[in-house]
Design brief:
Order of helices and strands: HHHHHHHHHHHHHHHHHHHHH
Number of helices: 21
Number of strands: 0
Largest sheet: none
Radius of gyration: 21 Å
Structural class: mainly alpha
């Protein structure tokens, strides 16, 4: 009898099957939204199952229950407690802080100033800045924070009814790809880079010289091409989503909120500390409620739940993923990493690569380059993507982002990113 039944062949098989079911559920989430409209008696349950952010958390729960039945409750609890949930917690917290009105308005005002200096209509300038500059800021403020800011700023400019839905999907694809590669200018902002940086001794100078300038070029190309395609559909002037005859925000309140955001980013690897800081933030936001919009606590918690489920389910996939990664030569590894990222998570994929003994520097580069290039293909490909879906899904028909539409919208910007990393 095996010492640890959690890692038995039976549990590996169950985990792989549940992971496949969760993927199918993710890709079919929009179907549940349609069913909810057809069957109002069960609309609440169907809407819940149609929430992309719920999918992996739900099937992770099923896995833990199955593990308890097969291996015993103690084994199931021990496995769940062995998982590392820092990233889901951080993404939840940084989303809420970054989306607070003082932070959002401060960033939006800065970009408006830059947009007015560009030889473009203000809305076109804001669209380009939101798709080009904000993703690159992700290398400083982390990718989840950049995704939150970009999604909220682009929502009233690009993701509007006047823009045809196929172009909205194209914009979503560009946003997701640019966020995925835009965090590679430093060694701490992109989850797939963070997973290998210490093991392979990659610092921010190395990232900027090896990945960063290529990523920046691809981000600018993707944003420019997309804006060129949609510019005629954009409103004459960018609107605001705050919807308030808003009380002007004192600079001191904005400064305190930005300090909270900086503190959360700096403490990203210390959950006890950034959660404590988050509680102080909630108290401060409540004390100055007149300067706030409703905090996106629901969206943040749902995204955290999604990523936590991915951590639980993904932790049981190493047995089949790692041999694939280890067996590929560099070019095949680059292409394989892009493909595997679409059905796993690029941080999980690079983490498995970091465990391979004797992996060559060329293979290291190809693995990470492929993982970040493919980070916009699906909702689960990159940790910040669920945040973008949570904030923008109401901008699409049936209030859901279709997996096929996202994949189609991301193909061209993914090809641009792949070409930059492979040929330059």
């Amino acid at each position: 009898m095996q010492a640890n039944l959690v890692h038995s062949d039976l549990m590996h098989t169950i985990a792989a099957v549940l992971f496949a079911v969760a993927l199918l559920h993710t890709f079919g989430a929009k179907l549940f939204e349609s069913l909810a409209h057809r069957h109002p008696a069960h609309a609440g349950l169907l809407h819940l199952l149609g929430e992309v952010e719920v999918v992996f958390g739900f099937w992770a729960m099923v896995l833990i229950v199955a593990m308890a039945l097969v291996a015993g409750g103690d084994q199931a609890v021990a496995y769940a407690e062995s998982r590392q949930f820092t990233e889901p917690l951080f993404v939840c917290v940084v989303m809420v802080v970054a989306a607070s009105r003082p932070v959002l308005e401060a960033v939006r005002a800065s970009l408006h100033t830059v947009a007015r200096a560009l030889p473009l209509r203000p809305s076109v300038g804001m669209a380009w800045l939101g798709l080009a500059v904000v993703p690159l800021l992700g290398s400083l403020i982390t990718e989840p924070a950049a995704m939150t800011l970009a999604a909220l700023m682009l929502a009233p400019v690009v993701f509007v009814a006047a823009v045809p839905e196929r172009l909205r999907y194209a914009a979503l694809g560009v946003l997701f790809v640019n966020i995925s590669i835009g965090g590679t200018l430093t060694a701490y902002a992109a989850p797939p880079v963070l997973m290998v940086a210490q093991t392979w001794q990659w610092d921010s100078a190395f990232m900027l010289q090896t990945f960063g300038w290529k990523a920046a070029l691809a981000v600018l190309v993707n944003a420019t091409v997309l804006v060129r395609l949609i510019h005629r559909h954009l409103p004459d002037a960018p609107a605001s989503d705050t919807g308030e005859a808003a009380t002007p925000i004192p600079w001191s309140v904005s400064a305190v909120h930005l300090a909270f955001l900086a503190g959360v980013v700096l403490l990203a690897h210390y959950p006890v500390l950034f959660l404590g800081l988050f509680l102080f933030f909630l108290g401060y936001a409540h004390a100055y409620q007149r300067y706030q919009s409703p905090l996106i606590l629901k969206e943040g918690l749902l995204v955290g739940f999604f990523l936590a489920g991915l951590v639980v389910l993904g932790g049981m996939q190493q047995w089949w993923l790692q041999p694939i990664v280890a067996s590929l030569e560099p070019t095949a590894l680059f292409l394989g990493a892009m493909a595997l990222t679409a059905v796993t998570d690029n941080a999980a994929l690079t983490y498995l690569g970091s465990l391979i003994t004797g992996i060559s520097p060329t293979s290291q580069y190809m693995l990470v380059a492929g993982a970040v290039a493919g980070g916009g293909l699906t909702v689960i490909a990159n940790a910040p993507n669920p945040a973008g879906v949570a904030l923008l899904r109401d901008r699409f028909s049936a209030g859901a982002v279709g997996a096929g539409g996202l994949l189609a919208g991301a193909l061209l910007p993914t090809a641009v990113a792949a070409a930059a990393f492979y040929f330059l």
